[in-house]
User: What shape does this take?
Amino acid sequence: MTSRTETSRSQLARLGFADLSGSLERIAALEARPGSDLRVPIADAESVWAATADPDGALLALERLIESAPEQLRPVLADPGATERLVRLLGASTGLAEFLQRRPDELALVLDPVAPPWSQERYTASLDQAVDGSSGETARRRLRVRYRRHLAQIALFDVLHPSPTEAFPDVAAGLADLAGAALDAAVTVARREVPFPVADVAATPLAVIAMGKAGARELNYVSDVDVIFVTEPTEPTEGDDAPRISTDRAVLIATRLAIAATHVITDLAAEPALWEVDANLRPEGKDGALVRTLESHVAYYERWAKGWEFQALLKARAIAGSMDLGERYVAAVEPFVWQSSKRPGFVESVQRMRERVTAHIPDAQVDRQLKLGPGGLRDVEFTVQLLQLVHGRDDESVRVRSTLEAMDALATAGYVGRPEAARFGPDYALLRVLEHHIQLRRLQRTHLMPSDEDELRVLARSTRLASSASALQDRWRSVKLEVRGLHERLFYRPMLAAVASTAGEIVLTSSQVSDRLTAIGFLDPDGAVTHIRALTQGTTRRAAIQRNLLPVLLRWMAEGLAPDRALLAFRRLSDTLGESSWFLRMLRDSSGAAHSLTTVLSESAFLSGLLERFPEAVAWLDEPDTLLKPRPLPALLAETGATTARHGDAVDTAASLLRGVRRRETLRLGMAAVLGHLDVDGLGPALSDVTEATLSGALDLARRDAPQGLEFGVIAMGRYGGRELGFGSDADVLFVYRSSTVPNEVAARASQVIVRELNRLTEDALHPFDLDIDLRPEGKNGPVVRSIDSYAAYYARWSLTWEAQALLRARGAVGDAQLLRDFEHLADRTRYPAAIEDREVREVRRIKARVESERLPRGADPARHLKLGRGSLSDVEWFVQLLQLQHGHEQPSLRTTSTLEALQAATDAGWVAPEDAERLAAAWRFASRTRSALVLWSGRTTDVLPVERTQLEGIARLLEYPPGSASQLEEDYLAVTRRSRQVFEREFYGA
Assistant: This one.
């Protein structure tokens, strides 16, 4: 039964067994089987078990085979070589062990010596022989059994090879060729199964085009096989009895053939399915026709295809069916691939190449992902494909499909250094070997490294990449770290060497540097070269550090939408800060700060301009949790107060410093918003505090020559009054004064001087500060400043409904505290009336309708205007303000200048349904965030959601959408405001 040499626990442990007790019991049970002469060698085959990935699993599988298939197993165990092959196979793959238990006759495959994988032609002949004219369930069973027999042979070659990483190219190619043979056999079976005349089916060509890893002949053990199906009409030649097949008829028959062939591979049957046949890379994806003619494919790629579709065609290869048609398809689409880097939208598609496949990775899996995680296979493939697309346009030598062959071709052509190719080629092979052996273990599609210690140990033994589970993890982490730097080393460093004229193995030409810069999104590659040269040339410490940093910084800039802007701003910052040790040290030692800087520069023209005036603010990025927090109002008031006190009578100097404080604090808040440290609920109060502190300091300066006894105040109105300011918002204000000791005429003239001085001292061409007084009594026709008694008289006798509505957001902001409180009490009598008449409600509604029809800019789309558009800010604010006018007197909680607080109070009081309030609040927040994002992105104040895709994409990034979400942002905004408008029309107009 077993070796007559006694097997001990220590011996099993030395051979790699983990379940010592269980395996000893299993050995004893095998020895005790009555009447059996089958021997499982242990003691006299130690080298076999020591080399087996999972000795416990192999022993268990052998036990099951002895019980279920002793006769088929007998010749195997009688042959030491066959026994070794079987044990090693069973220990590497429980999936193939289950196959052999299902199909014990296939055990004979281990009797043959191990050989390299066959050609596709040889596999095709074998599978055709197995199917042998059958169809239905019989064909499926025969095809799948023969396929798995060949899969086991490939696995044996892999498992027994001295170096799995060296075997990988042959294994991957063999798997692709075997998949091609299976598809070819499936098409043959499908031709016997589709319900069309035999002659018509025979005359209808169907080519199967392999994409992705199958197309590149680098397939996994278990992988979706990406395909495209192609057909064409046929005309019989002279003397040929074959029928004529029209275009429509060819597409109809070929579609049924493609569906039937897919079913041959994937149907539920006695022998499990092989893998998924994925045709989603076809034109129009899942929404497109499953089969098209060659002419239709070419027309689509000429007119409608997106950038990523051309990149997918990089791997296209005729693999099954009508090979002549397939080869013609590949020849027809090849020019599209190599011209894609010059097509509009290429940059966006490059930025999305990885994003579109990584968007749905659960956070818990990111660190275990061999394929899509940081430092994974996708990083290598992305870099190599990008280099191919950039340089393959002019250099046919790099037009190859396989990743490893492409790396070699790029190195040979001088686009990649040979040391880098020699380093990263084996890294890629190592990652692929890990992926292969993880899939081989259970014949399941997965790209996750095991988390279980025992499974990691088995993987280490299977791949022979490490001696233990922990050593394997250490080696994998080391490779991941290397691969994460691959893009910089292969793509960016050669550019830097060429531009900075530093020594290096790779010397790119100027046009090649421009091609690379254009490919990653630079609109002005010549300008970018100028900036890079200015940053990196020379022997200074700064230039040396910049040469090391720029490959990474350029990649981060390119991940944004405005790399030209980011690079120019970075150069200006670097020129300003010069040799500042803290700046260079931060860039060198804090990757988080450096990444944040490139994000700010790329995503915000507004902040880039402010940074030029206050470059020291870059230091905040090194401690963002502390230094990017909004400063509280008392601290801001203390600073502005100290500034005005310190500079005595130098009013203009003090005012300049106050403007600098405002720019600096706005910059702080902008950086916090861009980097996700500040949301819209925190932004409004923080910007209002900065405005308040600026006005407080300016008022101190403006009233220095005012007569004693003159009280003066600034009343915040509108969004400033509600503490809801955004970037680029005007500050709506009223000015009020009071004097009991100064004649009214003198007080009025002095107050007008104060107002003029406030406007002069706060005027800022670099960061405009507009004090808007249009909400004052009588509007633009009224005086710019009034006494509190004048306000009281006006509101008592002449106030219109819109003026009472405007007072709902009046808040004493800056000036003499008692005067501010008295004004608020005065406003309360007007804005919270004991009752509001129906005609006044109608007047509010009439004015709102007039605003909608008359104040929208000419040609503006009402659905896209963020302030006055349908369902946007204006709708929400007018709705809430009408409720405040109607119920504020009786409901104290409504007496707030905050829109959202008032909306919540109205909801709590039962005047607004919770679901309606949720829709209104969502629209208000969305529109507010989008307005600020527009200013941050463009540096200009605008209230219209743009239609241009780059601008939309920039806003989407600032709103924390993933890359490529311009359309999603647009759809979300229109949907949110549409729902808000429905509530508004029903509850405000009664529609």
In short: The CA atoms of residues 7 and 501 lie 68 Å apart. The longest strand covers residues 731-739.
